[in-house]
Predict the structure.
Amino acid sequence: MGTFALQIAAWVAKTKEDTDQVVRRVLQEVGDELILRSPVGDKEKWAENIERKERGLPALPPGYVGGRFKGNWQLGVDEPVTDTLPDIDPSGAASKARMMAAIPPQAAGRHYFITNNLPYAQRLEDGWSKQAPSGMVALTVVRYQAIVDGIVASLK
């Protein structure tokens, strides 16, 4: 193989490596942003619980622990994940790690789906929670191109 062919092969390999890195980093940053923006319920702040507490009634729902929504962000590769998880992850750290682990080493050229399949996910996105009045997905979509541009610029 001639020198020019070797140079082209090296360029192709480097480009493929950079592309895989961009895809991995974009998925990581988008996933991190979705998780960071996701509210963690605090039953002590819920209006109905405050009213119930003032009347001497127990808070609702019993046994509630915040963080299930953050714990249900999942990354599907080539097809969306359709199940839910029992995970409670108020910090989002476990969800971030699980999503990163799902990204294949050769990440470019695949289809990715970041989903949260809890039954109340759409309500949270639509402003049901005062902690996330503008949703998580819509705000992340607005930032998507800036995320991609920043990552690409960092590789130059």
Notes: Residues 3-37 form the longest helix (35 residues). The two ends are 29 Å apart (CA to CA).
